[in-house]
Amino acid sequence: VAQVLRALLLVAVTFLFMTGLQYVALAEATAINFLAPLVVTALSAPLLKERVSAYSWFAVLCGFVGV
Q1: Whose CA is closest to 29, among 16, 43, 10, 11?
Q2: What is d(CA 62, CA 67) in angstroms, rounded to the nearest whole number?
Q3: Residue 63 contacts by C-beta under 8 Å, 6 or more apart in sequence?
Q4: Less Cβ crowding at N or C end of the chain, within 10 Å?
Q5: CA 34, CA 67: separation in Å to the nearest integer?
């Protein structure tokens, strides 16, 4: 069940990204897409009650700078 839900969400994200390109430039949409790891890391602590270490934040920051 979880795999099917994940697959459906991936299809929805892809569809919404393509639809959003009608309203936002490709460069801006791609930049927003690259923010996903930062947002997931930031929301994992309050929503999933995970402990986010300084190393994790550093890794996300390095990846973000690399982009």
Answers
A1: 16
A2: 9
A3: 37
A4: N
A5: 8
pLDDT at 67: 66
Distance, C-alpha 15 to centroid of its chain: 15
CB atoms < 10 A from the CB of 60, how many? Answer: 17
What is the reported pTM? 0.62
d(C-alpha 34, C-alpha 40), whole Å: 11
For the segment 3-59, what is each residue's pLDDT rounded down to a tens digit? Answer: 999 999 999 999 999 999 999 999 988 888 888 888 888 888 889 888 888 998 898
Q: Coil, helix or strand for 5?
A: helix
DSSP codes, 26-66: HHHHHHHHHTHHHHHHHHHHHHH-----HHHHHHHHHHHHH
